[in-house]
Amino acid sequence: MARVLIVGAGLTGSLCAALLRRELPQRLSRLVLWDKARGAGGRMATSRGAQDPKCTADLGAQYVTRGPEHAEAHQRFYEDLLSHGVLKPLTAPVDGMMMKEGAENFVTPQGISSIVKHYLKESGADIFYDHRVTQIYLKNGKWEVCTNTGSSDKFDIVILTMPVPQILQLQGDIVNLINKSQRQQLESVSYSSRYALGLFYEAGTQIDVPWAAQYISNNPCIRFISIDNKKRNIESPEIGPSVVVHTSVSFGTEYLEWDKEKVQPLILDQIKEIIPDLPKPASIKCQKWRYSQVTKAFPGSAGQITLHAKPFLVCGGDGFTHSNFDGCIDSALSVLEALKSGF
Ligand SMILES: Cc1cc2nc3c(=O)[nH]c(=O)nc-3n(C[C@H](O)[C@H](O)[C@H](O)COP(=O)(O)OP(=O)(O)OC[C@H]3O[C@@H](n4cnc5c(N)ncnc54)[C@H](O)[C@@H]3O)c2cc1C
Predict the structure, then answer these.
(1) Tag placement on the chain: N or C end, fewer CB within 10 Å?
(2) What residue's CA is closest to ligand 1, atom 5?
(3) Residue 236: pLDDT band by 50, 70, 90 thresholds?
(4) Average pLDDT over residues 323-336
């Protein structure tokens, strides 16, 4: 029986937790998730408006695309989410969307973080937010994992699912466990950066555009806009609409080290160029995605890397595959296989 810690309550971490509970329940004495954030989702983030928590916007991932190459292998994951109403087919018009032949898009009526919450609930794990892991030590055959608040706990198995540069920031014995070639491979993983704005409106506000979402190709700052409730097919007179804006990667990279308070007005100016009649929102959230989508995955894209076998220390996440739902499923499945072979 093992005490297992999963670091990261994003899609990969939550799915690892659900799969462990599904497939190896008799091997778990305790399943714990720690995340540095205040809530679940990671880059599958759904934010609430300050004036009305029912008004929500997806600031990271927008929809789930089932690639034809994964349709069969991942069928059970899609069927599970569709049967629970977590996923629904995307039916709203998205201008400028490029679609691979045979691919299908799905939206999340309760927000994209509802996928992560679905898996967390299934896992029955003990989840602790505001827990930023800072150091990992190997002591008497167990992992001692420490947080920024000075607290620590001991585990038999640790699964790290954060973006790779955040794995490389960890201190303690883990620094010496990563050999030179693994370090070089980990350092080669790269991510794009971008900003996202969520604009939240009061009920009854009209946003008159003929699309639910639009990809923009001729603006230096803005790449994507979504009228989020319209995209998710949940338009209601009682809940205000919300708008999501993603910047281009070039803008995100140029302003990466700026304070987001200074970047927000630059983005708002550009939105006015695209939608001059856009009403003034009741509240705004600006999100900096330093690690947005993987531009170069871990060599071989095997889904995980085992840093230590006895006791187990394994890394997963989209950095080991690619940045979408299918990529995170592949990573979580690889982590599970690695654990099964070593249990
Ligand atoms: C702007 C944007 C748009 C996107 N669009 C799409 C899309 O339309 N469709 C799609 O499928 N995908 C999309 N993606 C990609 C998708 O969101 C990611 O591939 C996926 O969410 C990655 O999940 P993950 O669990 O591997 O990592 P993450 O979601 O990053 O989860 C890692 C978690 O680890 C936590 N963490 C980090 N460091 C520590 C630490 N030291 N201690 C404790 N916790 C820590 C973080 O808080 C985070 O919750 C998009 C991403 C972004 C940013």
Answers:
(1) N
(2) 61
(3) confident
(4) 97
Terminal alpha carbon distance of the chain: 9
Q: CA 303, CA 21: separation in Å to the nearest integer?
A: 19
Neighbours of 11 (CB within 10 A): 31
Q: Pocket of ligand 1, candidates 43, 87, 171, 256: which has the most ligand atoms within 8 Å of its Cβ, to mutate? A: 43
Which of 46, 152, 162, 286 most suits a substitution to test ligand 1, by most atoms within 8 Å of the C-beta?
162
- Provide the β-strand partners of residue 231: none
Residue 105 CA from chain centroid, whole number: 17
Which atom belonging to ligand 1 lies closest to the Cα atom of 169?
41
- Name the phi and psi angles at 198, rounded to 5: -110, 125
Assign 163 a pLDDT band (cuts: 50, 70, 90). very high
User: Does ligand 1 have an atom closer than 6 angstroms to the CB of 46?
Assistant: no
* 161 within 8 A of 16, measured Cβ to Cβ: yes
CA quadruple 152, 153, 158, 161: dihedral positive or negative?
Answer: negative
Q: How far is the CA of 236 from the centre of ligand 1 (A)?
A: 29
Nearest residue CA, atom 13 of ligand 1?
61
Q: Of 101, 17, 306, 71, which Cα lies nearest the Cα of 185?
A: 306
Do 2 and 28 contact (CB within 8 A), yes or no?
Answer: yes
Contact between residue 161 and residue 250 where contact means Cβ atoms under 8 Å apart? no
Which H helix or E strand runs over 58? strand 56-58
